[in-house]
Amino acid sequence: MEEKLKTEGKFKYIEVGEGSPIIILHGLMGGLSNFQGVTNFFPEKGYKILIPELPIYDMPMLKTNVKQFAKYVKKFIEFKKLENVILLGNSLGGHIGLLHTKMYPEMVKALVITGSSGLYESAMGDGYPRRGDYEFIKEKAENVFYDPAVATKEIVDEVFATVNDRSKIVKTLAIAKSAIRHNMAKDLPKMKTPTCIIWGENDNVTPPDVADLFHELLPDSDLFWIKKCGHAPMMEHPVQFNEVLDQWLISREFLGGQNS
Fold first, then answer.
1. What is the 3-class SS of 39-99, one letter each residue?
2. Where are the beta strands (DSSP E) in 158-227?
3. Angle 198-195-34 from CA coordinates, rounded to 5°
4. Averaged over 85-99, what is the pLDDT?
5. Cβ(104)–Cβ(67) under 8 Å?
6. Contact (CB, 8 A) for 244 and 224
7. What's the pLDDT tens digit per position in 101-150?
8. Taking a C-beta distance cutoff of 8 angstroms, is the pair 101, 193 a contact?
9. Phi-psi region of 137 (alpha: psi -120 to 50; beta: other; left: phi over 0)
């Protein structure tokens, strides 16, 4: 997917298809390629897929927090002159999508969250990741998925490189702490945006009861479970993930090719 990355102004992003815009927000350790299944499927249904590369390691330390990333998404939407967007976020990306929707509800037609932080997550596990310990990082990466084989060597190598880059790990920890601080339990009951919650039944990072709580607190939400699935359903079961989301969009009459 790297060859499709566009650079315009201060934004780097992937853009595929034409129609109703779906903006995808990746997680803290998640690459843009994590959403390849979504990117391949939804343009054929009449949607434009946009995946901005979030400046996770490029913000000044004081601005390395969830709120600043929510503002960044607003600037991206304005830059692309988009209206009635559907936001789709995994893990930290879901949290950013939730906060953006709370701050700018008029910009968001619908929200989709999967393995989202915002209420609880154990993303950093038992604390500071051990630098230089490849097997430890491999085990952590495999724990994200129900099927450890999904954590390919390429994925493990990328996480390993991140935790061994001092400036990146400092930013990673700052964002993780910001996500924990920015708990949204009190905000969610006031958020009326239609929300699709898609969750892995075997998520170890944001356990299933987190999904139940999101569903309980968000007034206009639907919850869907994917079996034998961990923290990233769109990677582990892309076909099922796409079917669930497609059917939800149809049921809510958010049809591709329409921008209203």
1. HHHHHHHCEEEEEECCCCCCCCHHHCCHHHHHHHHHHHHHHCCCCCEEEEEECHHHHHHHH
2. 195-200, 221-226
3. 45
4. 96
5. no
6. yes
7. 999 999 999 999 999 999 985 544 444 556 678 998 899 889 999 999 99
8. yes
9. alpha
